[in-house]
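Lab channel / #folding
Pinned by the channel admin:
"Please post every new chain as: sequence first, then the structure tokens as a reply. Keep commentary short and put observations after the output so the thread stays searchable."

First post following the new format, from NK:
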Amino acid sequence: MLKKGSKLNSILTGTCPKCQNESMYEDKNPFNITKVLKMNPKCSHCGFVYQIEPSFFYGAMYVSYALNVAIGIATFIISYVFLGASIKTAFIAIVATLTVLGTLVLRWSRNIYINMFVHYDPNYKA
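Reply from TO:
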């Protein structure tokens, strides 16, 4: 499931979607807020250029919105339905969860978006 060549591997690890040998990001730590979205211009292993076209990653905002809504709903269901928290506590849990996972969601949305258009090819050379 997480072996090299799968989309899920590229999405969760943030590696190049074409060769999956190198991280797309300058800093692999997603919690470094100052560098959370700083990307390498291209993969040093296969030469794939990450910025496919100008403003390519603007589309990742829609993916980010969907991820945040899904996480918010899941947090509400867990806290309100399963744990029996009040509405106010469930709201606080949603805000806290989205705050903690904010930088991860930013990266996951970019990773998901680029993997929607780029497929793994171990023999690719730019």
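NK: The mean pLDDT is 93.
TO: also worth noting, The CA atoms of residues 64 and 109 lie 5 Å apart.
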